[in-house]
Amino acid sequence: MPAGSAPSSSSLHEPMAPPFNSFTNASTTNKALTPNKQLGELLRSIDPKYCFHPAVEELLLDMASDFVQDVVDFSGKLAKHRRSTTLEPRDLQFCLAKNYGISLARVLPPSAQMLAGGAASSGLRPLGQDLLVRARPAKNSLHMHRMTLKRKSLQHTKTKLKNAHAAKVAEGAKKVVRWQEDGSDGIAAY
């Protein structure tokens, strides 16, 4: 287009090419384009006599799109933190485990793990080795003994403080102010 000339209306309305993604195929593209049909098919597979109210269907679709957006945003931030331009399964796994409590370790089929280079290289871990699930160390007897001594010491200190406070209160209760017959005041302890 020569400099100084206005863009033609046909060039403004040309559709943009979708971004290149080596993992998309015809079946995933069709599934992404028809979520309403999939939602209806899912409900019919559970019970054929039920159908969604349009407001409920819209709400479920909004919730699903928000969920996907949140997971992709958080996973993208993780990938950026790793200084990578590619989302890896471990990014999604960490996001789902941390934010939603969902584990992907044994959910993916073996073919999907092989496409990603195997379980070890893709970053997926077995259920027992999840990123956020760690076994607590066993308590040993020395630790338990120290904790018992500390608890007894604190209890003993509290008892001493209570007794001292009770003694002060009792001592203060013994002092009574009395008016004497001659008009002067005096303090008598009983």
From TrEMBL:
Ranges where the record places region Disordered: 1-31
A cellular component term, taken from the record's GO annotations: transcription factor TFIID complex
Limits of the Transcription initiation factor TFIID subunit domain: 37-101
CDD domains, per the entry: HFD_TAF12
Protein origin, superkingdom: Eukaryota
Biological processes per GO annotation: RNA polymerase II preinitiation complex assembly
Intracellular or extracellular location(s): Nucleus
Ranges of Polar residues composition bias in the record: 1-12, 21-31
Keyword Cytoplasm among record annotations: no
Keyword terms of this UniProt record: Nucleus, Transcription, Transcription regulation
Pfam families to which the protein is assigned, alphabetical: TFIID_20kDa (PF03847)
Gene3D superfamilies: Histone, subunit A
GO molecular function: DNA binding; protein heterodimerization activity; TBP-class protein binding
Family: Belongs to the TAF12 family.
Descriptive protein name: Transcription initiation factor TFIID subunit 12 domain-containing protein
